[in-house]
Design a protein that fits this description.
Strand 2 (about 95-100) and strand 3 (about 105-110) form a beta hairpin. The strands form two sheets. A four-stranded antiparallel β-sheet has the order 1-2-3-7, with no helix packed on it. It has helices spanning about 5-20, 30-50, 55-80, 145-150, 170-175; strands spanning about 90-95, 95-100, 105-110, 195-200, 210-215, 220-225, 235. Helix content is about 30%, strand content about 15%. By secondary structure, it is an alpha+beta fold. The relative contact order is 0.16. The protein starts with a helix and ends in an 8-residue tail after the last strand. The chain contains five helices and seven strands; from the N terminus they run αααβββααββββ.
């Protein structure tokens, strides 16, 4: 087992412990909805913890993410007509952002892929960015930080919130949606993508390699920080974590 797998398992296990709410038995329908969202998140994170003991983390993300998406469909059936958040649409477009009612995360809204890059508009799905400049290859001085992230966090900031970041693998995995197409993240980026999206993740065995999630397959790939990939920003915290 590589150091990478061990560290991933430990990291995910820590999230699992945080996912279980220490609250009294829920009484109202809304409280039941919230409690089951916690449990679904805990199962997703436990799935990642278990799968990373058997395979590399990048191969565990897609099946666990698909199971998480199916849990939401079960909640919608159970709470249909209840008027709770569990009976609503999962993804809510709010201006330039999309809020995930299941995970609690808020995502940057991307525009449909059309094959034409437009760097004047950071929402353009065709735009690609680097984590590091070619001169260093290690520092966080690539266009993902100096361009799209800097603009999102410069007042008045994206959606008037100045705490946007590049998502972690666990956060990105919550977007995998098998109900629309295998491994797609279409609610956030309609039209899909021919490339991956950078993640805030680094392998312990290869300091120059960072992960990116492939929109088509939901898998984490590994590439140098100077490689160009898409960027979808996120803010907030998973339910049960500090925001």
């Amino acid at each position: 087992m590589t150091k990478y797998v061990i560290r991933a398992a430990i990291c995910v296990a820590a999230f699992v412990a945080a996912a279980e709410p220490s609250v009294a038995a829920p009484r109202t329908t809304s409280e039941q909805c919230s409690a089951l969202r916690f449990k679904a998140l805990g199962r997703y994170q436990f799935c990642l913890s278990r799968e990373t003991l058997k395979r590399e983390f990048q191969w565990a993300l897609s099946p666990c993410g698909l199971k998480y998406a199916r849990d939401w469909l079960k909640l919608q059936d159970r709470f249909a007509g209840s008027g709770t958040e569990c009976s609503s649409a999962r993804f809510h477009t709010e201006g330039d952002t999309v809020r995930d009612a299941f995970s609690g995360l808020v995502w940057e809204k991307k525009l449909a892929l059309d094959g034409i890059q437009n760097y004047a508009d950071r929402r353009d799905s065709d735009n690609t960015y680097t984590l590091s400049s070619p001169g260093t290859g290690v520092d966080s001085d690539g266009t993902a930080y100096t361009d799209i992230l800097a603009r999102a966090n410069t007042p008045p900031c994206l959606a008037n919130q100045c705490d946007w970041r590049i998502p972690t693998p666990i956060e990105a995995g919550t977007l995998i949606d098998g109900s629309s197409c295998p491994g797609c993240i279409s609610p956030i980026e309609p039209g899909g993508s021919g490339f991956g999206y950078w993640l805030g993740f680094q392998r312990a065995t290869a300091p120059l390699d960072y992960g990116f999630v492939g929109a088509a397959g939901g898998l984490i790939g590994i590439g140098p920080r100077t490689m160009s990939q898409g960027v979808i920003l996120v803010r907030g915290g998973l339910i049960g974590e500090p925001h």
